[in-house]
Amino acid sequence: MSGYLEGVLVLLAVNVVFAYGGFLPLAAGQLNLGLAGFAAIGAYSSAYLSNVFKLPPLIAIAFAGIVAGAVALIVAAPVLRTRGIYLALATFALGQIVQAIILNLEVVGGAAGYPVAAFIRLPAIAATATVVVALVWLLFATRFGIAVTAVHDDETVADLMGIDVRAFQVAAFALGSAIAGVGGGLYAHHHFSFIEAQYFNISLSITIVLYVLLGGTQTVFGPLLGAAVFTLLPEVLRASANWRYVAFAAALIVLMALRPEGLVTGAQLRRLLGLARAQPRHAEVAAALPKEPSG
Amino acid sequence: MSATHPILRLESVSKHFGGLRVVEDLNLAVRRGVRTALIGPNGAGKTTVFNLITGVFPVDAGRILLDGVDITATSSHLRIGHGIARSFQNIRLMPHLSTLENVMVGQHCRNRGVRGVLQPVNLVPRNRWREAARAALVDAGLIEYERSTVGNLPYGVQKRIELVRALMAQPRLLLLDEPAAGLNPAETEALQAQLEKICIGGLTVLVVEHDMHFVGALCEDVIVLDFGRKIAEGSPEDIRRNPLVQEIYLGAPVAQPMERHSACSA
Questions:
Q1: B54, B96, B112 ranked by CB distance to A160: nearest
Q2: N or C end of chain A, less CB within 10 A?
């Protein structure tokens, strides 16, 4: 396998993990713009564990997920008090704070960056990504997936149906952050690694959110597809040299216009699998009726 | 027995929104195993009463007792576990879930804790919760919509799915907020048949409804609210003959239409 191809596949695997980190909060209706911060926590904690305590990279990466998830649990109480655009701003600020702290943390190199001695290759990285994807898929095949979607769709009714809305919001936030931490750990240990706080900026957070939004937040397949398309598309467009970013951005806008709910949606998936019965005769009627909360 | 042991009792319950007194010193009792209608003009506070019973809003004063147990301070997500399930005035199904998944949301309160939450309902084809939800859809004649996205379904079908969802909680007390509103006659008939079927088991039902034919056909007790106060109660026949009710609700001698109208915003 050529070095280039391996490099692209490693990037793909890391991005897929990041995408599932973004998927969990989005599935629960949270726009988390601090994912890069949790990825940074994962990257630095796993790098520190493998550099200083000589933990094998995969063990260190598992710990990275735990550390990032634990930090998320601690900050969840204040952060999840906000909602909508304010939640986006609060998580954005959180990401900035993490970045600023790492920049001033001399023990991991501060602004100079932090070299990582140990590394793992494509098979281990791909296997880790596969495990993460499988675990999220399994989780969403349980009642958890239904409850999280219910919280996303209608908090009041979810609550009245006995769903502990806050618990599921915290769980989605912390699990997503833990997965982002694992992604950060993988990033820190892919070969010739040298991590610096500047990499984990808002643009990384936005990119992760884009993978999920454009792939689709309604099914567990969306993030995989989104991350794959948006990792590979720039590579395919490489032929057009300097224009590839313009082409990429144009492709994004076209996609948003054509598929505002993402590449795959739940309804579409059910249709594709040939499972839905023919029915939507009365769609106009249903759409015309008010859906306001009762007063 | 039923008269001395109401399943639901509201004692001097009040609720104000700012200066607006939506429910004022309300006392009411719902007899066990009886279908009771809560009627009143727009803005009388009927939906607010439902919201107080289910805990959407806290009460400002008074107590709510379910089977003699004070649930006034019980948080809203735990009340369904005490046996109170409800439907909503405007359909509130989860648009991103299929019909079957929406129905399974109703089972959540019987499936709490980590083990309940990790029930592989969409993984194991013969999962017992999934099978129970399917059986309920078969019973209701809705199984053909099992995998449909609910937003695309006819209004009447959505209302019936909401009813099945509420029943999956195996409630002792079912609150229905205008179940027949917006339905065509055929849909109303289907709903009525479904309701009569579920009431055979002795379920207690409290229903807010404007359609007096529907109320007369379904309910044994009627409670009339106006401006958040109870103004009458009795059998549908008594209520129909009650001059006060005729005046304020059925609009017999139109008293002060302007004043009435100004109260409709609540």
A1: B54
A2: N
Instruction: Report the number of distinct structural domains present in chain B.
Output: 2
A145 vs A286 pLDDT, higher one: A145
Do the domain assignments include residue B90? no
State the ipTM, two decimals. Answer: 0.88
Same domain flag for B238 and B259 = yes
Q: Worst-scoring range by mean pLDDT, A30-44, A89-103, A246-260, B118-132?
A: A246-260
Same domain for B112 and B236 = no
Q: Which residue has the tokens 């490693």?
A: A10
Chain B residues whose beta carbon lies within 8 Å of the beta carbon of residue A146: 97, 101, 104-105, 108, 121-122
pLDDT digits (tens, 9 = 90+) for A59-114: 999 999 999 999 999 999 999 999 889 999 999 999 999 999 999 999 999 889 99
CB atoms within 10 A of CB B140: 21
Q: What pTM did the predictor assign? A: 0.87
In which order are the strands placed within the sheet that holds B173-177?
B84-86, B173-177, B204-208, B35-39, B221-226, B229-234
**Containing structural domain, residue B236:** 1-83+171-266
**CATH code of the domain containing B74:** 3.40.50.300
Are B108 and B36 in the same domain?
no
User: Does the beta carbon of B129 lie under 8 angstroms from any beta carbon of chain A?
Assistant: yes
Tokens read off for A106: 């001399």
Structure tokens at A196: 């610096």
**Distance linking the first and last C-alpha atoms of chain B:** 37
* pLDDT one-digit tens code per residue, B200-234: 888 999 999 888 888 888 899 999 999 899 999 99
